[in-house]
Amino acid sequence: xxxxxxxxxxxxxxxxxxxxxxxxxxxxxxxxxxxxxxxxxxxxxxxxxxxxxxxxxxxxxxxxxxxxxxxxxxxxxxxxxxxxxxxxxxxxxxxxxxxxxxxxxxxxxxxxxxxxxxxxxxxxxxxxxxxxxxxxxxxxxxxxxxxxxxxxxxxxxxxxxxxxxxxxxxxxxxxxxxxxxxxxxxxxxxxxxxxxxxxxxxxxxxxxxxxxxxxxxxxxxxxxxxxxxxxxxxxxxxxx
Length: 240
What we know:
Jelly Rolls; 12 strands
């Protein structure tokens, strides 16, 4: 399901790690094999039938908007074998350890461990935020064909606040189906730009990881986005 990746010699591995440490972001183009992409895309389409629509402003993330369809990790764990198996794949764990120079481990909160995010309506967006856990691996199953279609990742490394996304420190990246990226997601402010017209889709799996030495101070934001609809956005808590 995964291409043999990459950085097979020490110099390449060091260069990738240095880029990730500097940028808080590392693209992984073509991480999924064509067969793996097709299998995950079919799985996502099946799971989309039980996903929930979310349209609200995340109070604890400066009121940034959420217009998207999501499915949380607890439901994915019940309904899918493929996605949890990939999350725990030994080759993937080895890759993440190489790129981060740390031993990454599964996050304790199953809700946030592996989630499905689908943008599929004009204006759909995943607004500005940081994550509870230090590392996010985002796998693209569907994406708009060109940057002008929207669905771009915008990010600002080592951000003191979400407003860093509105400064010259902010960068943007476009990705294709089968691509992935690694993000230092607890200290990198990030968002997904709105889809610009009808008929576009951006479907990603987001895998969250932590380490054995990371102190975790979670918010309620993930429960507002992936939990039961009774978990109101106003109860999502305060950002770190």
